[in-house]
Design a protein that fits this description.
Blueprint: H1 8-20, H2 25-33, H3 48-54, H4 58-66, H5 81-88, H6 91-99, H7 123-129, H8 133-141, E1 149-150, E2 153-154, H9 162-170, H10 185-190, H11 196-204, H12 222-229, H13 232-240, H14 257-264, H15 267-276, H16 290-294, H17 302-311, H18 332-339, H19 345-353, E3 359-360, H20 383-392, E4 395-396, H21 398-403, H22 409-420, H23 425-435, H24 437-445, E5 453-457, H25 464-467, E6 475-481, E7 492-494, E8 506-512, E9 545-546, E10 550-552
Parallel strand pairs: 3-4
Antiparallel strand pairs: 1-2, 4-9, 5-6, 6-8, 7-10
Helix pairs in contact: 1-2, 1-3, 3-4, 3-5, 5-6, 5-7, 6-8, 7-8, 9-11, 12-13, 12-14, 13-15, 14-15, 15-17, 17-19, 19-20, 23-24
Pfam family, one: Ank_2
InterPro entries: Ank_repeat_dom-contain_49, Ankyrin_rpt, Ankyrin_rpt-contain_sf
Organism: Eumeta variegata (Bagworm moth)
């Protein structure tokens, strides 16, 4: 028989020690008969029932419950016997306590979305956190709340294991609940590299595939997180389930899923998004178009990505304007030249091939100008890129070329000479045929378009309606022949500043050599063009030489 000490507190300590030593029940009964109390705390609010649960002493637990102990008594931290048994996964004790009337939820519902942190979580949270599946299921079967809110979110927001996700969803957890960072369970699952199982599960229970975060997470959608994970399987699944590839973002400075794929350098992901319908020319007034993103610095697999974008219809000359001051963002070519200290000729060739304009002016004079972005192609090791740009240049600014302090003297001289002596019409057309999207598409459809020929005709005076402004020796006359042209078809050719189009089986072109176009001579009003869509584009201001050839052949 154990020694019986005087004083209730000593008896309580003796009762706790006896339970810890798992002495026979008769000794525990003697202590109770001698005055030990089943509901009196021993230390720090711990009751004898807590000790019995801690030791997993099932018989002592039953004895204490029979003797009337409070099954919901808490210690100083708020732990009950059910908390302890759930945390340690003692299923038989959890079942006994629940049958004896233990409450499954203890935290009061304050109505707060993210209630203050307490020292004690719910028994269900403890069971799930310690991966006691059977205990968690037992608690849910007895009414535990699957949507209980904590400081960092609901039960479902705090779970990543598919097994526990399914368990909570089965018992009614909200698949679209958000955590403190405004993330949904589907967003968290999508950003896991092996999250396909969880994504499938959440979608099957109604998770929103187009849910969006707030500003703290850059207004990202589920698709953003899937793209960041690099899991093409998840991305493909989300797209099939209706995830939006193109959406209105509240903040235009934030990247789209396509932009993120480009920034990651993931060629496969970029191709998948474009094939699925992502807008290749979707533009932000802050970061520009996807092609602008691809031309920025530190992009892996840049060449492959730029090629995919251009082949998918990206416009290298797209005009994007700032919302703040309506200023135009610099074009993709200028972005590439300015942002990359080690430019690659293949990227420049790609941009030129697909029609990127080369305007040898400053952006102050022309928003499409690249003259103040040539510092990275001026060094000797990149000078071949500079020569390529000079060959493709279509407009020049003498004044700013002279003032440019980043180019070497011989480079400036080359630019000046190139501005004074435009390349031939035939050479321009060859370049255009390789570079302009609509012409390239026509070539694929009918190779006979390549049979266009140019014939230099004897010099003669220009037509009467032009003779008042220009003298005959300022022109060269070409006859352009193409098997596909008919008298009813119009071909508009805008070439070095002056163009005359005639309705004939060929097209007579009066080509100015070096003259300057000013706004005082709107030549388009003199041209015998009957089509209402006869715009030749806006003529530039005084002092600008235009060398670009544009061919538009409707219905070819």
């Amino acid at each position: 028989m154990p020694e019986v000490r005087s004083g209730g507190k000593s008896l309580q300590r003796e009762l706790a020690d006896s339970i810890i030593r798992m002495v026979p029940l008769d000794e525990i009964r003697i202590l109770l008969a001698c005055g030990a109390k089943v509901n009196e705390p021993v230390t720090q609010g711990l009751r004898p029932l807590h000790y019995a649960i801690w030791q997993r002493y099932l018989e002592a637990t039953r004895l204490l419950l029979v003797r009337g102990c409070d099954v919901n008594a808490r210690d100083d931290c708020g732990y009950t016997a059910l908390h302890l048994s759930a945390e340690h996964g003692y299923k038989e004790l959890v079942k006994l306590l629940l049958e004896s009337g233990a409450a499954v939820d203890y935290r009061p519902d304050t109505g707060e979305e993210f209630p203050r942190t307490t020292l004690c979580d719910e028994p269900l949270r403890l069971a799930i956190r310690n991966k006691h599946y059977d205990v968690a299921r037992l608690l849910l079967e007895h009414g535990a709340d699957p949507n209980k809110r904590y400081f960092f979110g609901s039960e479902l927001n705090l779970v990543s294991d598919p097994e526990y996700l399914e368990l909570l969803l089965t018992f009614g957890a909200d698949p679209n609940s958000r955590d403190r960072a405004e993330l949904t369970p589907l967003m968290k699952a999508a950003r896991q590299r092996r999250g396909i199982e969880s994504v499938l599960l959440l979608i099957s229970y109604g998770a929103d595939v187009n849910a969006m975060t707030d500003a703290r997470n850059d207004y990202r959608t589920v698709l953003h997180y899937a793209v960041l994970s690099g899991n093409t399987e998840v991305v493909n699944l989300l797209i099939k389930q209706g995830a939006k590839l193109n959406y209105e973002c509240p903040d235009l400075s934030k990247p789209s899923p396509l932009d993120l794929a480009i920034l990651k350098g993931d060629v496969t992901m970029v191709q998948m998004l474009l094939t699925a319908g992502a807008n290749v020319n979707a533009s932000s007034s802050v970061i520009g178009s996807p092609l602008h993103v691809a031309c920025s610095d530190n992009i892996n697999n840049r060449k492959e990505i730029v090629k995919v974008l251009l082949e998918s219809g990206a416009d290298p000359n797209i005009k994007v304007y700032s919302e703040e001051d309506a200023a135009q963002l610099r074009p993709a070519l200028a972005e590439y030249l300015a942002s990359n200290t080690e430019p690659h000729v293949d990227i420049v060739r790609l941009l030129l091939k697909f029609g990127a304009r080369v305007i040898m002016k400053t952006q102050f004079r022309d928003p499409d100008g690249i003259l103040n972005h040539l510092q990275n192609v001026a060094p000797r090791e990149y000078e071949h890129i500079f020569y390529l740009l000079v060959e493709a240049a279509e407009a020049f600014d003498f004044c700013m070329i002279r003032r440019n302090n980043t180019l070497l003297p011989h480079q400036k001289q080359l630019l000046m000479a190139r501005a004074r002596d435009p390349i031939s019409l035939k050479s321009q057309f060859k370049r255009l045929r390789l570079s302009t999207n609509y012409v390239e598409r026509d070539i694929r459809e009918n190779s006979r378009l390549t049979e266009v020929t140019f014939e230099l005709l004897p010099a003669k005076k220009p037509p009467g309606h032009l003779s008042q402004e220009f003298t005959w020796d300022m022109f060269r006359q070409y006859r352009i022949s193409a098997p596909l042209l008919s008298p009813q078809q119009l071909v508009y050719i805008l070439c070095p500043t002056i163009t005359v189009v005639a309705l004939d089986r060929g097209v007579s072109v009066y080509l100015d050599r070096q003259s300057i176009v000013t706004e005082k001579h709107p030549l388009q009003q003199h041209l015998p063009i009957k089509d209402k869509h006869n715009s030749l584009g806006q003529f530039p201001g005084s002092g600008v030489i235009h060398h670009r050839l544009i061919v538009k052949a409707p219905n070819l």
